[in-house]
Amino acid sequence: MFTGIIEAVGNIDDIIRNNDDISIVINTERLDISDLKLGDSIASNGVCLTVSELTPTGFVADLTTETLRRTAYHSYHVGQKLNLEKAMLPTTRLGGHIVSGHVDGIGDIIELKRKSRTIDIWITVPIHLKKFISEKGSICVDGASLTISAVYQNVIKLTIIPHTLANTTLVNATIDQQVNIEVDMMARYLERLITNNKQEFPKSTNVSMSLLEKHGFVV
Description:
With 219 residues, the protein is mostly beta strands. It is built from 4 helices and 12 strands. It has helices at 65-70, 162-167, 185-195, 209-214; strands spanning 8-18, 21-27, 41-44, 47-55, 58-63, 81-86, 105-115, 118-124, 138-141, 144-152, 155-160, 178-183.
């Protein structure tokens, strides 16, 4: 589990391709890894990765085809900057919100507006995640815990404060950039509780299955 409070910005030193999956070598930069051991979890751009090997400057992690399919890692390259956070401890201050490191979908940055020391960022989230987002609610973007300042359909607006800009990869955000999205965990489980495991789209629906699949629904 994580808090969404980024501890350091690292980068990908190498990408090793193993048939369909990959291993990545991450340089953790300023992140203290003196207490890191094999099997530990680190959130890297919001994706919970398991340390498979320790290196003098960081660690190695294996990414399966499932991780590549569901996250923006499929487009990452050597030199890619990563938001890093070690797994929280029972004594950790929960400065952000509870984050699992299990990405729910990929968002796209569609607009940026710089205002003095802050940046407003507009992101489209997958349509099937729309029901989990609300104004003033929490969302995790590339591992960073952020507050949603406005919502329109499946577009969210985020106002990034100077501290977050100085300590995350969001300072280099660009239009059309893909970002990893994790919705608020409580919202996800509350929705599941309310629907009581019933199918959201019964077989009698007039909406075609291909259209639902196109917009990210699992049918």
